[in-house]
Design brief:
This protein is α+β, with helices and mostly antiparallel strands. The protein has a single domain (3-197), classed as SMI1/KNR4-like. Helix content is 33%, strand content 15%. It has helices at 3-18, 20-25, 34-41, 47-53, 76-90, 164-177, and strands spanning 72-73, 119-124, 130-134, 143-147, 184-189, 192-197. The chain is globular. The protein starts with a helix and ends with a strand.
Length: 199
Amino acid sequence: MDDLTRAWRTYLDVLAEVVPVTRAALLPAGVLDVEDAQQQLKGPLLPELVTWFGLHGGSGYTFNCTVLPFCMALDLRGAVSDSVMIRDIWAGISADDDVDPGDESQLAGSVVYTWPNEYLLIGADGGGGGLFVDQRPGPLQGCVRWWDKVEADNAAEDVAAASLLHLIAGLAPAVRNRTPIAGWVPSVVDGALDWDVAQ
């Protein structure tokens, strides 16, 4: 069993114990059409993302199931659909359209004020924003970042997590102990997971 799968299963155990309503709302994994997803995204998926989408079927757009900080987890189909929609909306919008692809500003983790093909939304906040994985090359490839429908990829000063593994591994202790993660503090409301901005 790989580390991401192990971390996810640990997190599911914590959800079942602490927030059973949220755990019950999480959908089981379905069949992945990775080839179709890559065709729509115009590029390959990182192996960690393929593993991730094979672990669950998303939250089904219910606020009772914000298993990611302030976000509902998307299944692969929803992630691709939302990512393509955002990419199409932001097509041609950039702080600098003449950026050299070899420039550091094109490395993972850098802000480009638009939606490159390498971005893939993994969690939706219900308001046009959420968490995405930055698949661009560089030392931070695979990092998890915030997207905002107005601020674009400048939605937060720092990346939310160095990788999906780092994010998921941090969720179990954060939910169990109600400690901050990725700028949010988990809380429990009627058996469901809720999130407040970290102070």
